[in-house]
Amino acid sequence: MHSAYMQTNPASRASGDGETANAATHPREPTWSVVEHGWNPQRANYFETIFTVGNGRLGTRGSLEERHTGALPGTFIAGVYDAYDSPVIDLVNAPDWLDSEIFVDGLRLDTESAQVIEHRRSLDLRSGVLHRDTVFGLPGGARARLRTERFASTADRDLCCLRIEVTCLDHAGAVTVRTGIDGNRRNLERLPTYREQTAFGHERKWDKWAKSTHLVSVGARFDGAVGVLESRTIDSGLDLAFALTCSGEGGRRHQRSRHDGIEVQWHFDVGPGETVRVDKLVGLATSRDHLAVRPERERALDTVARAGSFDTAAAANRAAWDRQWVDADCSVVGDDRVTQALRFAIYHLLIAANPDDPTVSIGAKALSGEGYRGHVFWDTEVMLLPFFLFTQPRAARALLGYRHHTLPGAREVAADNGTGGARFAWESADTGREECPRYTPDGKERFYTREEELHITADIAYAIIRYAAVTGDDDYLFGQGAEILFETARFWVQRCTEDGDSLVLRTVMGPDEFHSHVDNNAFTNKLVHWHLRQAAAVYERMSRERRERLHDLMASIGLDPSEPAGWRAAADRLRAPTDPDCGVIEQFDGYFDRTVVPIVDWDAHGMPRLPVRYSPFDCEATSLLKQPDVVMLLHMLPDEYSMATRRLNYEFYEQRTMHKSSLSPSIHAIVGLQVGDSRTAQRYFERSAFVDLDDNQGNTEEGIHIASAAGTWQVATHGFGGVRADADGLRFTPALPGSWQRLRFSVHWRGRPVRADLGHRDARFELLGAGPPVRIIVWGEPVTLEPGVVVEVAAP
């Protein structure tokens, strides 16, 4: 039976479940917030991570304004790195713009000095605002309420805002509010080696780490009522300026500065039930800001001046978030908890990327913590980029811009390893040079990823081709994209070695980091084969369509006209599993000879436990996998293999995978759905969706698993929603879990959003924006979308 579809006027459409089409405007509150009820110091670091506020320019962890023993606060500015006093470069823990203290009748309101009677915090995912409401008990039975709001503005990414309100609930009292900017910040450096099984309580565990210093103060003073703190990174020499304005009605104001901080104090005499308020605006500027030419101090001062007031800034921030959610929202009718998890993931993705700065990228913990030192991995291209590509194309373009910005560093990495062309670092920061540490933080185990995990270079090529295919942005493809593709193809040709009639890649590491020093990793070889052919194809297109641009590029990088043919020849000779009916693909030479160690134990979250006597660093001789390797290959290049081959390999490797990377469950969910294993796919989806909300890996306190957030979105849209975008256009093959009634999201295709409202037996689509009709394929049948007209399609 063929699919049937009809067109309707969107103005007359009913939503069926009472929810309007624009859920961001009329939200259901539980799905748009994450809430902390009560104060538990043992969970404080967890909430610091998930309550991170940010805007892609910076991220600030959700620590209490007044801090507590065991707090791990942090503000991280994209692109601000420093290597002073540390073995590898760090994303700098920047000056603390939240620094505050509140006193009532001389008693400091904090979780240790006063009794916590009530405590509630709520992160509003719609607007990126963190709300706090704490009632403290005072000596003699009196009570005081502390309320705060904070956000990093998405309307003006140089602006941060904090509102503090204090109420003496049942007595008259003297209230002091001190708030400022503290430049005395450190980064965690290294955890010394202690006896096995040594554990430290939440109050002291961060004290046990050695610390790194990256900032020195170069000025702190007030000009009138506006304060400015200026700092400089010690090794990289970046200048940072923070400007502060602070307002309060009816109080007495005092301001002070020290060499590494500025602060304002407000003193109020408060009657019973009376509330006092202090609003704080902070402007930020750095010397590395993209396209900035004026001094940092001037730009920071301009930011707080143009912000006006807290309320004006809050309204602008909310409007900017509403615009983002129109394209980014993804919701499930019939499962509010999954909808909350999806929106939580999307929120953290949106605060991780800055579409206005093509010189920065997203680290493995985004801007929410010090995990992985803020370094950029392959996660950005294979996990994060699809979300931005289909919902925020400008941000996707900026993320790819980072790779071109750091291309000189990639050329240096290639040269350092004895080849020409460009090889992207496994871990990069501001320059593109290799920043991967050689040892674990405690110094006990050696990493070989910096030397051997080469596939990132092909992963970046993959992202470039995907971006061009979805957006149709040939100007990018034939410009920065082509330069990266050509330079990296040169690297691969020289990195391959002769082996009889074949070319091979020796001493590499695939995505599965349990196995190092392997030859002919199937994932790497196949991606390199694909990469070389794509680079040659782009060269051929440019020779037909952009000859002048190609001539200029060849001249700038010294490309010989014979080289592209050599890329194709190398691809044809490279040993790679290309037979679509090859059966089980051997992950690398000799993998089938490794000892089979069955997985027999799972934790409370359904995550596999390593077998007794094994650790992540002694699985080399086993068949156990850290994360998908061949299965990742099937995910990225599904059309290269028959369904029978994909199903066979999924079943073989799924039972050997430990999922010790947070990106692992989502990839297994997507591939599981493609091969018909929906039950297992739904289980993996839940692992991915709740990795941070449920802290199911036990390390959320170190920062958000941002790759898992992006993977969760991919499972929903590309897995259950059945989205595919390729040379044939945009396709949908929905297959929703039985408990879901409908799945709603938008995707951008060739510069125009398509809204999808998918059910089990029907689907609705709407093309937005001016332009010609667009043909999509739904359940295998072509459907034509006219702008502004809802099309309803029945399942076959």
TrEMBL record:
Residues 724-785 form the Glycoside hydrolase family 65 C-terminal domain. One of its GO terms (molecular function) is carbohydrate binding. Residues 36-288 form the Glycoside hydrolase family 65 N-terminal domain. GO terms for biological process: carbohydrate metabolic process. Gene3D superfamilies: 1.50.10.10, Glycoside hydrolase, family 65, N-terminal domain (2.70.98.40), Maltose phosphorylase, domain 3 (2.60.420.10). Keywords: Glycosidase, Glycosyltransferase, Hydrolase, Transferase. SUPFAM superfamilies: Galactose mutarotase-like, Six-hairpin glycosidases. Residues 1-32 are annotated as: Disordered. Residues 1-12 have a biased composition (Polar residues). InterPro entries: 6-hairpin_glycosidase_sf, 6hp_glycosidase-like_sf, Gal_mutarotase_sf_dom, GH65_N, Glyco_hydro_65_C, Glyco_hydro_65_M, Glyco_hydro_65_N, Malt_Pase/Glycosyl_Hdrlase. Signal peptide: none annotated. The active site is at E513. Substrate binds at W378, D379, K626, Q627. Belongs to the glycosyl hydrolase 65 family. This is Kojibiose phosphorylase.
